[in-house]
Design brief:
By secondary structure, the protein is mostly beta strands. It has 5 helices and 22 strands. The longest helix has 13 residues, at about 235-250. The protein starts with 20 loop residues before the first strand and ends with a strand.
């Protein structure tokens, strides 16, 4: 055996020793937005100037106050934020996108990168809060008091794409003063159902819009605090090695992902956008109902889950997968916000104009004629400067597997059935880089689209609704932060 090539970790007895390691955590009060932050506002955080900050585990903590009749928080607490930026000395390093909420939601089911159910509000609640308290018939779901009389926190979010910084620990003393800005989303992320029961008089109250008012549903972030997890090394060897590397190369490099988003009406034949990036890794597309994206409305049932009352009495709604008749008498109700509703853009089955009430029974019947027939179902492919990928127009079954390949997952943990994929969580993702393992050294292997005016097209055919859908294309790129002497910075993206 040639030992010069090294041994796998399972056979290696080699040890690395670093002396003088200390660990600590710091709670930071925002410079603005430290008390109550309404929708469409900002929370500004100034980071420590001299520490080894762990970007993966540092988080924003907060509670939430919800107002309005029957108002409900969305699935995924990141949905309350529309954007995150980071600047150094006033210069923007990470600009994010204005679609952070839906981007994070899609990452949850497409990349198996969802928020935890403990601090993340992973589901839309029905009649009781995440703390177990019953919600009255016309009351909003709210957590104004948190867990400690108004000063505690209940939810937390990480730094989104910045949490995937590599290396995950950065010496902030090498950078100008760092500032994070969390932008809160609009009030449309809060659902406004008719009632607080999965089934009631006239149908499923959760998927019928609040008849009294949809104008007063809103949210506010309460008592936000940012916690930095940090390290220090007392022997000075790490600082010395950084200086040496900077002298040898002229700079240090850190890499982080960033998503560029493009939204436009989908007319069926194609959608087109311009893209310039040094390293394009992946493109993911979702389709959402145009009239629902920015409007406050009811909840959308997730297909394959229980939509009836606990006694098994059937009510209108997307049927669950169970006993004869499609509705099982056991199980859980599951919902998503209408702005989160990622449905395949079929022309049939016909969605109700308002996507509310009794039409939901047939809205998810993708076995109807015209969907499964030869040449009938929706197909699409991408084209980058006329070079088409895949080489054929893939159908929805093929796109499910292509998307797993693009996201380097064996199965989508949060998609439990074919109808849930088509009706609630439809996405088409295609890779342009080499696959990478979470423990591997990061590498820029995507395509460079900077040399020419690169246009990306989404080409569709078959059973397409040409009037009622917007397509959101999310281009994931690798950005490189170069840190030079004297705290000089350059971002390659």
């Amino acid at each position: 055996m040639d030992m010069s090539q090294g041994l796998p970790s399972s056979l290696s007895f080699a040890l690395m020793k670093i002396q003088g390691v200390s660990v600590n955590s710091f709670e930071i009060t925002p410079t603005s937005g430290s008390s109550t932050v309404t929708s469409n506002s900002q929370i500004r955080i100034t980071l420590p100037t001299n520490c080894l900050m762990d970007f993966k585990t540092s988080r924003l903590y907060f509670s939430v106050e919800v107002s309005g009749t029957n108002a409900r928080l969305p699935a995924g607490i990141k949905s309350l934020f529309s954007r995150l930026t980071m600047s150094a000395g006033g210069s923007v390093i990470y600009q994010g996108s204005n679609f952070l909420n839906i981007q994070s939601y899609v990452s949850g089911f497409a990349e198996n990168d969802g928020e935890g159910g403990i601090n993340g509000h992973s589901e839309i609640v029905v009649a009781s809060s995440v703390q177990g308290s019953a919600i009255a018939a016309t009351a909003a779901e709210t957590y104004a008091a948190g867990l400690s009389g108004g000063n505690g926190t209940l939810f937390s979010i990480d730094l989104c794409e910045l949490s995937k910084m590599s290396p995950r620990i950065l010496d902030t003393s090498l950078l100008p003063n760092l500032e994070l800005i969390f932008y809160t989303a609009g009030r449309n992320v809060v659902a406004a159902p008719k009632g607080n029961l999965p089934s009631g008089s006239g149908g499923n109250d959760m998927d019928i819009i609040n008849a009294t008012s949809t104008a007063n549903q809103d949210f506010a972030i309460v008592a936000p605090r940012f916690v930095v997890n940090a390290y220090s090394l007392l022997d000075g060897s790490y600082a010395m090695s950084l200086r040496q590397r900077m002298e040898d190369l002229g700079f240090l490099e850190a890499m982080f992902p960033q998503t560029l988003c493009f939204s436009q009406p989908f007319t069926g034949g194609n959608a087109r956008f311009a893209l310039s990036a040094a390293c394009l890794d992946k493109i993911t597309c979702i389709w959402r109902r145009s009239a629902k994206v920015n409007a406050t409305g009811p909840c959308v049932p997730v297909a394959g889950y229980l939509t009836a009352k606990n006694d098994g009495t059937e009510g209108p709604g997307v049927p669950s997968l169970g006993t004869s008749g499609g509705v099982d008498k056991t199980g859980l109700c599951a919902y998503q916000g209408q702005y989160q509703h990622c449905s395949a853009p079929f022309s049939v089955p016909a969605h109700d104009a308002n996507d509310a009430g009794g039409a939901m029974v047939t809205a998810a019947d993708f076995g109807v004629a015209g969907v499964t027939g030869a040449g009938g179902q929706f197909r699409c492919q991408y084209a980058i400067n006329s070079a088409r990928v895949p080489q054929f127009q893939a159908d929805t079954t093929q796109w499910y597997d292509l998307s797993k390949w693009a996201n380097n997952v064996v199965e989508h943990d949060d998609i439990k059935s074919k109808v849930e994929y088509l009706y609630n969580k439809f996405h088409t993702a295609y890779p342009f880089n080499l696959p990478q393992e979470p423990w591997g050294k990061p590498a820029c292997t995507g395509i460079d689209t900077r040399s020419s005016n690169t246009f990306v097209e989404i080409l569709g055919s078959g059973n397409v609704d040409v009037a009622h859908y917007d397509v959101l294309a999310m281009a994931k790129i690798s950005s490189i932060l170069r840190i030079g002497a004297g705290k000089s910075l350059e971002v390659v993206q």
